[in-house]
Amino acid sequence: MVVGQLYRQVRDQFRKAQLSTPELDARLLVGAGLGLALSDLLLKEDEQVTAADAARVMAFAEQRLEGMPVGRILGEREFYGRTFHLNEATLEPRPDTETLIEAVLERCDRTEASMMCDIGTGTGAIAVTLLSELPMSQMIAVDLSERALVCAQENARLHHVDARFWPVCADYVSALREGLDWVISNPPYIRTAALSTLSTEVVQHDPILALDGGEDGLKAYGEIVTGAKKLLRPGGWIALEIGFDQASDLKKQLRHHGFGAIEIIKDLSGNDRVVVARGT
Question: pLDDT at residue 115 above 90?
Answer without folding.
Answer: yes
